[in-house]
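Worked problem 6 (solution included).
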Amino acid sequence: MLRLQKVCKTFNKNTVNEKKALIDLSLHLKPGDFVTVIGGNGAGKSTLLNLIAGVYPCDGGSIWLDGNDITRLPEYKRAQYLGRVFQDPMRGTAGDMNIEENLAMAYRRGKPRTLRWGVTKEERALYREKLSVLGLGLEDRMTSKVGLLSGGQRQALTLLMATLQKPKVLLLDEHTAALDPKTAETVLTQTDLIIRREHLTAMMVTHNMSHALQFGNRLIMMHNGQILFDIGGEEKKKLSVEDLLARFRDVQGTTLDNDRMLLS
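Solution. The predicted structure is:
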């Protein structure tokens, strides 16, 4: 479903601030893969997702989505194939519009616009059904302004919007990092349920090693713009946080020094 071949990205090239964010990175996701991505600050995790989404162009290499070369495809054209949830709950929704209107925008992603009535009776029933699955009571507040919702409610709504039209790949960029622990667990559980139910291909960047082990069928650890190891299947299920730290030490010859990851 997604293939990256020797992808490179350098910021501030040929200056004193030059930073090689990704170095000849190759990655292949099969349909239905749910890959968790971990690594310290500056490992290249968010840059990887931004290159897939088309936010940045590649300096080298190629990106293929469902058999099509999208390396040169601009971000706005890739948007119809990708779902994305950001760390900031405010980025994925329009706060001045109500819940129903936000869902209608997401439902029309990639479809031609017309002058027909905005939300049909059938669509409204669909939105109510989808919202009820979240278990947050939002199905009874569809005319409420999204700006009145809590951060967790907005993030859950963003997740629903990102998957309302089944994306070829769902990109989750630390989408629970700004939430309190209880709300984060709720959103993560809903994320896992939606990915399983819709048989989505997904990548989830996280700093929480326990979450990286708990969710998904594959785990990759990045460091200095490269993939250190890629673990899946039964091997992943048997891993512990201590195992991850030991593997990092074995590959890099040093201990992981990142407070945010270790405290998580």
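Discussion: The beta strands are 2-11, 19-29, 34-39, 60-65, 68-69, 82-85, 169-173, 202-205, 218-223, 226-232.
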